[in-house]
Amino acid sequence: DFSSIYSKDLLPASGGQEITREFLQEVVAILLGYICKSTQRNTKVLDFHHPHQLKEGLEGFSVKLPEQPETLEQILVDCRDTLKYGVSTGHPRFFNQLSSGLDVVGVAGEWLTSVANTNMFTYEVAPVFTLMEEVLLRKMHSMVGWSDDEADGIFCPGGTISNLYSILVARYHFNPEVKTKGMGVLPPLALFTSEHSHYSVKKCAAVLGMGSDNVLVVKCDERGKMIPTELESCIVQAENKGLVPFYVNATAGTTVFGAFDPLSTIADICHKHTLWMHVDAAWGGGLLMSDRHSMKLQGIEQACSVTWNPHKLMGVPLQCSVILVKKRGLLQQCNELGAEYLFQPDKPYDVSYDAGDKSIQCGRHVDVFKFWLMWKAKGSEGFGSQINKCLENAEYLYDQLQRRADFELVLKNKPEHSNVCFWYIPPSLRGLPAGPDRDERLHQVAPRIKGRMMEKGSLLIGYQPLGARVNFFRCVFSNPATQQEDIDFLLDEIAQLGYD
Ligand code: ABU
Asked: Which ipTM was obtained for this model?
């Protein structure tokens, strides 16, 4: 009974050991209950409420903060309700995001990380985690195809920040004086990325003061892959406009189609024009773990830098993202400021292990441990099979879609990644001739179905328009819990929710 017990009674309060144990056992029971429930197919993926409903409070749950402390009993209720009104991203029928699943060893790693509660900036306060980071970065370098003693990298908060690092070090590589003198020493720089690439490239160019307009967008073919001849033309066009090309982002696994740019050809172009080649493999990097699919990233070894998010296809709990840089020392030179209170050169150990000055952050969360623990638990082989399974699921969905008359595939080819894009065609639209009228009506179908789906809570899948294509569903597989029966359910449920 926690009804008259408060947080002040927990450790470090004297004599607080027993109540601390009991409280945390209750928390663990809540979390375990949630974990077990989230894989049960008869439970909801979400219990949707509008923002105003959640703000107003529901059955004793309120997001408002009190002036007076609340009892631990209420705190436990809050823990339960927070999970209850959230979204079960580990549910086998959660197809909404590139990151999904609930890896039990990964969760254990995140709990331990929280209890260790330390900071990655120095070896002094994170000796074990620092060495784990080094081990994992080396492992990832070797998966990319780089020699592990020449390359570098750092864990950072998400793919956008990894891409930001790539532009930052590329700019520094060509113009090191920018670090101290600022943008005034630079010519107007041009960056290149495909029309299907992640929006973060433009965002990073804006953040770094280069201007999003100076990111030249390269056309893709019908499968969403950058067209190398278009890249060449864009480079020439930029030069003719007085811009100085310096950076190309190639994508390995685009966000919507899961397309792989032709990395080797792009590498040749970068080499010819002396440009920095970055590969955004935030989503596709996981395929490097698979003996069946790693060849889709052929040419990645020629990149100068790589973004890879283990929290996506590899199922590591959020967040876990790395930037890998081929040239060792560049991250350090680009970002170091040598704050004397933190990075004292005369510490009693090899201070090259203080990785913090490679980072643009000061405080840095320990994102590595859960990943390290999962790798220990699965081995490289286990990750490989997990990823193969995700791609098998995508092929199964593709096969089912080909068979059904009530759905239409957006891309006719077999999926290269675990993305499968499709339209549901309700009876009223079947047989209508292609054209603006059908497009206008079809555009409204996916959002309407999504609305009904959220109210019902039976599954979750995303949709978007892309270029000239009106709203379509994007199904992505990264959750090892998903089975073929969930894919059958997905199609039948969409057909039911969308039946005129
Ligand atoms: N950073 C891209 C994630 C987008 C998605 O999960 O759909």
From this structure: 0.93
